[in-house]
Amino acid sequence: MSPETPAPAARRRAGFTLVEVILAVGVIGIAIASLVGILTSTFQQVDDVLQTNRALTAAQGLITGLDNPRSILRDLSAASSNSINNTSAFYFPTATDPDAPGTPSTFDNATFDASNFELAYKLLNQAKDADNAVWLYVYERKAVRGDLEVGAAGNIFAVNANPALVEVVYMANQTFPPDLASARSVIGAPMRVRLTLSRLLVGQRVNLDTATGEPTAVAYAAGTALPADPNAYALAHLPIVAEFFPHDFTAPADFKAAETQPVLTQTIILNR
Predict the structure, then answer these.
(1) Is 227 within the bounds of a domain?
(2) Which of 7, 51, 80, 122 is the least crowded, having the fewest Cβ atoms under 10 Å away?
(3) Quick check: is 40 in a domain?
């Protein structure tokens, strides 16, 4: 009697089980999440490096501007066709004090040959804390010649006419709108800089007795203003703190309330 021929094994159905599909999707999802995390971190690091480089460039421009305050521009307007910088009214030492608009200034270029230190002191002596800080804008722009600057329409600027330069601007209303950035041929976005008096002044005898020519016994305390007259300031240097923030064109009330961390903080010493 011949042995029975075994029945053929049941043919397995082609495809993947539900468990296998779930595992594969999970592995792919984890890989994608990891890749996104790596790329996000890399992009953030690149952005941080770019912002730091911009802040370092702005810091160098700020130091140059404070060493020569007559180069600091002020109260620019996109509608004033002032991109050529061809009038003294566009510069900081004009006939009005920056801390008292409308009040005649003894540091007007036309009437008094103040030293660079006196002009910088006049700008900074009230910056006793963050609430009284002096805000400046520093940016890179395309430097263009007057004959190349304006196009046929009267308002088109040849942004690639000449190399870039760094400008420092003081705005009484503390705003720097996008249309002004466009009119100035700004490269990227300006850096917003908050200037305050350094705590290195605390405990220093900063008031000068004009009768004796010697410092008074009163020591400087944090949060107080310096003497209004630079000649009544006893020290040969003025230490300030500069904090650099990326300018996203928000209103002053908004960026002051934001409490964001500065990209760069530097102590700058101005010497007489």
Answers:
(1) yes
(2) 7
(3) no
Is there a domain that residue 205 lies in? yes
User: Which pair of structure tokens corresponds to residue 134?
Assistant: 């002096």
Cα–Cα distance for residue pair 72/260, rounded to 1 Å:
26
H or E segment and range at residue 196: strand 186-197
Domain that holds residue 241: 47-271
Report helix angle 18-67 to 116-124, nearest 10.
130
Among 227, 234, 267, 230, residue whose Cα is nearest residue 117: 230
Token pair 């996000």 is at which residue? 40
Q: What is the pLDDT of residues 36-63, one digit of tens each?
A: 767 666 656 666 677 788 888 899 999 9
Element (H, E) at 147: helix 146-149
Tell me the per-residue pLDDT of 87-112, one tens digit each, with 9 for 90 and over.
666 777 665 555 554 444 555 554 55
Give the burial string for 134-150 (b: 16+ CB within 10 Å, else e): bbbbbbbbbebeeeebb
In single-letter form, the type of residue at position 120 comes to A
Run of H or E residues at 62: helix 18-67
Domains: count for the chain: 1
Whole-prediction pTM value? 0.72
How far, in Å, are 17, 23, 39 from residue 13 at the CA level? Answer: 10, 19, 41
Q: Is residue 29 part of a domain?
A: no
157 three-state secondary structure = strand
Report the alpha-carbon distance of residue 191 to residue 170 in Å, rounded. Answer: 12
| Strand 164-170 with 73-74, pairing | parallel
Beta-carbon contacts of residue 9 (< 8 Å; ≥ 6 apart):
none
